[in-house]
Amino acid sequence: MAGSRRGRQSPTLVELAEAAGCSTSLASIVMRGAPGASDATRKRVMEAAESIGYRPDERARSLRRSSSGLIGVAYHVAEPFHADLVEGLYGTEGDGFDLVLGAMVPGRDVEHTIEPLLRQRCEAIILIGSMLPVARLRRIREEVPLVLVARQVRAAGIDVVRTDDRGGQRLATEHLIGLGHRAIAYIDGGQHPGAAIRRRSFRDTMAAHGLSDQARVIPGGNTEEEGIRATRRILDEGEPPTAIAAFNDRAATGVLTMLVRAGLRVPEDVSVIGFDDARIARTAVTPLTTIRQDTTLMAHVARERAAGLARQRFVAGEQVLVPELTERESTAPARPDH
Amino acid sequence: MAGSRRGRQSPTLVELAEAAGCSTSLASIVMRGAPGASDATRKRVMEAAESIGYRPDERARSLRRSSSGLIGVAYHVAEPFHADLVEGLYGTEGDGFDLVLGAMVPGRDVEHTIEPLLRQRCEAIILIGSMLPVARLRRIREEVPLVLVARQVRAAGIDVVRTDDRGGQRLATEHLIGLGHRAIAYIDGGQHPGAAIRRRSFRDTMAAHGLSDQARVIPGGNTEEEGIRATRRILDEGEPPTAIAAFNDRAATGVLTMLVRAGLRVPEDVSVIGFDDARIARTAVTPLTTIRQDTTLMAHVARERAAGLARQRFVAGEQVLVPELTERESTAPARPDH
DNA sequence: GTTTAATACTAGAACGTTCTAGTACTGATT
DNA sequence: AATCAGTACTAGAACGTTCTAGTATTAAAC
After folding, report:
1. B101 chain-A contacts, CB cut-off 8 A
2. pLDDT over 90, % of chain A
3. Does chain A have fewer CB atoms within 10 Å around its N or its C terminus?
């Protein structure tokens, strides 16, 4: 019971050294696995540590070392896509860095989130899917190396890891066109990262196929709710398109929801395509055809970049990953009568 | 550009004191808003801090103070319900504690997650929805006050904040019975927190209404995928029940998905009820009737408990919150012909 | 004009580590 | 027998704060 520890501090290196009958320096060497201790001593110290319940104080360690060995990660807790990326970040250990999470929640913006990370002297910060204006990103960049994930930004000094949104959206749009669809609606992602590029890519691809007049862009968002609203709006306005592309899988799921509610079948009546290949894509009412972003790889690269930037082995740049089409059941050839 | 800071350390209190022309003690007093400095000095120091870009080093602060002022939070990143709780935890500031997040991801279990929190000398740990056996919880409890959220455990010294799962599931089951349903399937949550209690509550409630022979419990889980699988199994086995209750909203969403895929209508053919009132409940194909757990309140209470336990103002106990039925569109009276 | 009380300020010792610069010992090399 | 190289170990100064115990300075009280 912790009751027995009430008020007691946890044992320090000094107490460990005492228990093991050696100097704190030696105990320290053993605890961090540095060279300079005999095997016998190592064993003795480790046993003493075990027996007194010694646990190194990370604050003191970090303070004393010249570098904190910390990479900060700022992400939106409620965003499943971010959660996937965070999971991926933990996959790659062994670069000598620990991760410190900074949660963005409503009312706690990027600056608020990053401040504690900087106060812990994180050596680099991975910022996931932030909509922050470039000027403010620049200000952060002045304090610490910054890796921006899943968003494009052309500003010197800011490292970027992202998917080729333009290529991805082209893939999606051409998939639909290839299936014979002509009247295609695109549900936009508003201000969200990547939205502007995907929107433009949709328009450009439609234009390239001479379908500009059939291309409709509907205001949307990145949530199921916004997908639902946008689709309702489409349906309210009369003859629905034969295909709908959405900014991301969450919005696409909202599209599916609304179509089912309206009694339309997917893909028989309307084809739907998403973006991300999020977890929910598989379990949607109709398994979603979508553009796959490899979150594991993105996370891997992001961490590598952050570590490299912190150690000044890299110069900031842009890593663009190639997305691919994942065909499931929500898209099908346009029916001839349309 | 951070390039200009290459290799430069961030300014320390000593440099701040120098810049402001006072002692470090005084600069410290100003920076932490402690009494003992004149208004003029405060202004001068603050301006100096601003001008040299001083930012207190949290590691040093925490190390020096007798208490770290940290509460650790261990949660599953990929679990939306946990994300809601984490959001809630940030809502209540002003207790003098900062939150440190510990992410549980596949391959990184509770112990791995908690270790870094302890190394930062968190004064209490909030553990969300862990399935850890009591013995191991006890071991953690020996090191630090522990608040267990969304799970019942009867072990001295472990603080618990949970919803009344038994009452909640009774509410759900009786809602269905009250609508005239008799053949009701329950999709179980397996080993997940609360699952055992909800399962038993379902059985007991059915029994109390003389419906034991109509009560079916199907192995399931806490994800959409498992909801789908369980429902497929139900449909494969012949005459479907007129109502399905699921362990949580994610599983219930899977149920909806599978029912739609099978061409059944909700609630006309089958009523479905979930648990949690997660975000996805509203945007499900058919808006889910569900049992609402107030995550904001739970988070609020959990934080309060953690802070109180850390400061030794509370003795560990159990806080049980009352859930309520949220009626949406996925439940309706049983059709007479059933 | 001395005491008292309060306010503004400071020196310097912590906090729990790491790390540099050293000492003491061993065994091999000349 | 003296030198060297290597291994095992240690003393003690950092790291950047907070906090205790103080010293001046001023204002009020008699």
Report:
1. 101-103
2. 91
3. N
Instruction: Assess whether B177 and B285 both reside in one domain.
Output: yes
Whether B329 is in a domain gets the answer: no
Q: Within 13 A of B35's CA, how many CA atoms are on the CB side?
A: 0
Same-domain status, A141 and A152:
yes
Question: Is the CB atom of residue A34 positioned under 7 angstroms from any atom of strand D?
Answer: no
What does the pLDDT average to over B63-89? 95
Find chain B residues with C-beta within 8 A of A224's C-beta. 280, 283
SS3 B297: helix
Q: What is the pLDDT of residue A8?
A: 61
Cα–Cα distance for residue pair A129/A268, rounded to 1 Å: 34
Task: Map residue A110 onto helix, strand or coil.
Answer: helix
Q: How far apart are CA A193 and CA A133, in angstroms?
A: 11
The half-sphere exposure of A48 on its side-chain side, counting CA atoms within 13 A, is 24
Asked if residue B220 is part of any domain, the answer here is yes
Domain shared by A200 and A288, yes or no: yes
- Find which of B55, B101, B140 to mutate to test the A interface (most A CBs within 10 Å of its CB): B101
Provide, in whole angstroms, the distance separating residue B309's CA from nucleotide C22's C1': 47
Query: Would residue A329 count as lying in a domain?
Result: no
Asked if residue B30 keeps its beta carbon closer than 7 A to nucleic acid strand D, the reply is no
Question: Is the residue at A56 inside a domain?
Answer: no
